[in-house]
Amino acid sequence: MRVCKVLGPVVASAKHPAFVGKKTLTVQPIDAQGRAAGESFIAMDNVQAGVGDVVLVMNEGSGIRQILEEPASPCRALIVGIVDMVDEAAGASTRAA
Question: How far from 58 is each of 15, 45, 66, 93, CA to CA, in Å?
């Protein structure tokens, strides 16, 4: 799983049937301080996330198919949680911005 920040929605007039009626968002991986940590990518939303939310993104196909209860789903990234706070190893806690 990765911690990411939602950048915005992805709108597509033509898409794979598995994505019809599903919300997709562009997300940016971030580090514990909230700085960009890698390239942005597209993830299907499963928790009603919005722009600016810090989210947990699952990148494991088998786990995603189990959550969606779709054995043949082509989904490669799924937003599975909205982060309220990150508790760093040093003991300091950081609220999600």
Answer: 21, 11, 12, 23
Q: pTM of the full predicted structure?
A: 0.83
The tally of domains found in the chain comes to 1
CATH code for the domain of 26 = 2.40.50.220
Per-residue pLDDT of the chain (97 residues; tens, 9 = 90+): 999 999 999 999 898 888 888 899 999 999 988 899 999 999 999 999 999 999 999 998 788 888 888 888 888 899 999 999 877 765 555 566 5
Structural domain range at position 52: 2-95
